[in-house]
Design a protein that fits this description.
By secondary structure, the protein is mostly helical. It is built from four helices and no strands.
């Protein structure tokens, strides 16, 4: 099998796994919403950001540990570029995780005072 075809198959499987995880996590987190208040929406979004951040960090560790395996399919330069972009996305998601909970606490503080 051609190297380009193998890399496309591996990339398709990884993207499919990512979309599947995102769909399952979204369903789990947002199915528990009983009311559609802003606080419950921020809470669910904060939980989802935490789950996605955990999975993204796991993917970064996995892709770093198996870089030599994926080097055969993609090349080390593409793996390094992927990790650089993916780590930036992971950092943004992880930073937004506590911010959503801060928005809830600040909104509740304004209501209670």
């Amino acid at each position: 099998m051609n190297q380009k075809i193998k890399s496309n198959i591996v990339l398709t499987l990884l993207i499919g796994f990512f979309i599947f995880c995102l769909t399952v996590f979204s369903y789990i987190v947002f199915s528990s919403l009983n009311d559609f208040s802003l606080n419950s929406l921020f809470s669910a979004t904060g939980k989802l950001a935490g789950l996605i951040g955990f999975v993204f960090l796991s993917i970064l560790i996995f892709s770093g540990d198996t870089a030599r395996l994926f080097d055969k399919f993609f090349g080390m330069d593409k793996i390094i570029k992927f990790q650089r972009k993916f780590s930036l996305i992971t950092t943004i998601v992880i930073i937004f995780h506590p911010l959503f909970f801060y928005f809830i606490w600040s909104a509740l503080g304004d209501i209670n005072s």
